[in-house]
Design goal:
Elements lengths: L12 E2 L2 E4 L3 H11 L5 E5 L5 H6 L1 H20 L14 H25 L3 E4 L3 E6 L3 E5 L2 E4 L2 E4 L3 E3 L16 H4 L8 E5 L3 H12 L3 E5 L11 H13 L3 E3 L2 E8 L6 E7 L7 E8 L1 E4 L3 E3 L31 E3 L10 H16 L14 E3 L5 E5 L2 H8 L4 E8 L13 E8 L4 E8 L3 H13 L4 H6 L16
Length: about 475
């Protein structure tokens, strides 16, 4: 870290901008602020880059890429390649390279902060409860304050308590997934959100005997119904054992073998309840949700939290305390790296660059789930659109087909696509798709939808043949 940025101050080290959290949002905001001659200080207790770089998007995508290789191995013979029997996968090779890649990224983040003259303080920040006039923050015995303080502390994955589910602490979370040294032979993943779906998909593709335990009848229930239905079918078709209407009720770990015996209770609505005992489980992953990191004595400053513990902010990322802001996962909306980055940068422009009205538009944020095959979605689901505008104002177009890649293969995955349009001009207000290539297909359509494109404008664009993406401009 570079030389002390403190301006003389009797109570605390005083800077222009104090950022708590060195993840996507905090780093982006601090760096952007220094471009306007602002003296910024950033506090982080762990490796730089936050969830995304260390235990999120980045290592996950590396594993997804590995899993794609595994899936395509099944297709090599269909495309005329003689793949020797007994081709094996060595988890430790990719783990070592992945860890090295992340270390490299940590270094790049540190170098970028340094280059921008952001002072980095290593340690855990807490509010002292003092104000002068904005709150004072303490790290390792040193006190800091600024007229503008950004909370960008992120979130963490939750695990049930052993009181609620006996033996729950024998499980790991997505964080622990990235610490695994070997491919587990047998895995149980609990959860129906995108993290559960992605991790189960990766493990299954790489050769772990995988079970996914979900509470209702479908995974990804917050997505468009077409996606929930299709992803659930693809999960089952891929060879994952899917326990629907189910919950894990008990976990017993054998002290000698280290293997777990897991009881899964299935209670379908209206049906008979039954329990299944799964033994010899090497790895139990809880992917049941995330909570905000607010363990920084946030109550001492009187910052409002919602009933889930998220920091409450307005559209300008202001908290209820003057001079204190929050971006990223800690504020509970759209928990995505590019959202935190965009919100953090917009905030820096608003505070230090005179752009008084700048704020992030949380509508039409494109997102991708790296499932097998991947999902792309932007805008309203059909159900949301109908609730918002009324049935008579909504028209949808959809398609479902087998992509050309699978014309040669025994293994099949589907492509499903849907446009949600608002009448009378058929403005596209939602786009949902799952299938090979959908992850890289969405960004450009995202631009079009953000610009307010109509169905007629989609159709006006000449199709690119032969691709899956051409379906989106030829829907009838």
């Amino acid at each position: 870290s570079n030389q002390s940025p403190c301006k003389n101050h009797h109570l605390a080290c005083y800077v222009d901008y104090l950022v708590i959290g060195g993840g996507s949002g905090g780093i982006a905001s601090a760096r952007r602020a220094t471009e306007f001659g602002i003296n910024a200080l950033l506090i982080e207790h762990g490796p730089l880059g936050g969830t995304c770089v260390n235990v999120g998007c980045v290592p996950k995508k590396v594993m997804f890429n590995a899993a794609m290789h595994a899936e395509m191995l099944h297709d090599h013979k269909d495309y005329g390649f003689n793949v020797p029997a007994g081709t094996t996968f060595d988890w430790s090779v990719i783990k070592k390279k992945r860890d090295a890649y992340i270390k490299r990224l940590n270094g790049i983040y540190a170098a970028n902060l340094n280059k921008a003259n952001v002072t980095t303080v290593l340690g855990h920040a807490t509010f002292t409860g003092e104000k002068n006039p904005t709150p004072i923050v303490e790290v390792g015995g040193e006190k800091y304050t600024a007229p503008h303080i950004l909370i960008a502390t992120g979130g963490y994955p939750v695990i049930p308590s052993d009181d609620d589910i006996p033996g729950a602490s024998n499980g790991i979370t997505s964080d622990g997934f990235f610490e695994l040294e070997d491919l587990p032979k047998k895995t149980v993943v609990v959860g129906a959100g995108y993290i559960a779906v992605e991790l189960a998909g990766i493990l299954n593709a790489l050769g772990s005997e995988t079970r996914l335990v979900i509470r209702r009848h479908q995974a990804l229930r917050a997505f468009d119904s077409m996606i929930s239905e299709n992803v659930t079918n693809e999960i089952e078709a891929s060879g994952i054992t899917l326990d629907k209407f189910s919950q894990v009720t008990n976990i017993v770990k054998d002290a000698t073998s280290g293997k777990m015996t897991i009881t899964i209770q299935c209670s379908p609505s209206g049906g008979r309840s039954k329990s299944t005992v799964v033994d010899n489980v090497d790895c139990l992953i809880w992917a049941i949700g995330r909570k905000p990191n607010t363990n920084i004595n946030i109550d001492k400053v009187g910052i409002n939290l919602d009933n889930r513990g998220n920091v409450v902010v307005d559209k300008f990322q202001n908290t209820n305390v003057e001079g204190v802001y929050a971006v990223g996962d800690v504020q509970g909306k759209a928990l995505l790296t590019p959202v935190a980055i965009a919100a953090g940068r917009k905030l820096a422009h608003r505070l230090f660059d005179g752009k008084t009205d700048w704020h992030l538009d949380y509508n039409n944020i494109p997102t991708v789930v790296f499932s097998h095959p991947p999902i792309g979605t932007i805008g309203y689901t059909e159900a949301e659109a109908r609730t918002l505008h009324g049935d008579d104002k909504i028209k949808t177009y959809s398609a479902s087909f087998s992509p050309m890649y699978h014309a040669m293969t025994k293994r099949k995955t589907k492509v499903v696509m849907k446009l949600v349009c608002l009448l009378p001009e058929e403005k596209v207000i939602g786009l949902h798709m799952q299938g090979l290539g959908c992850d890289e297909m969405l960004q450009g359509f995202g631009v079009a939808i953000k610009m307010g494109a109509t169905k007629a404008q989609f159709d006006d664009c000449v199709a690119i043949h032969p691709t899956s993406s051409e379906e989106l401009v030829t829907l009838r």
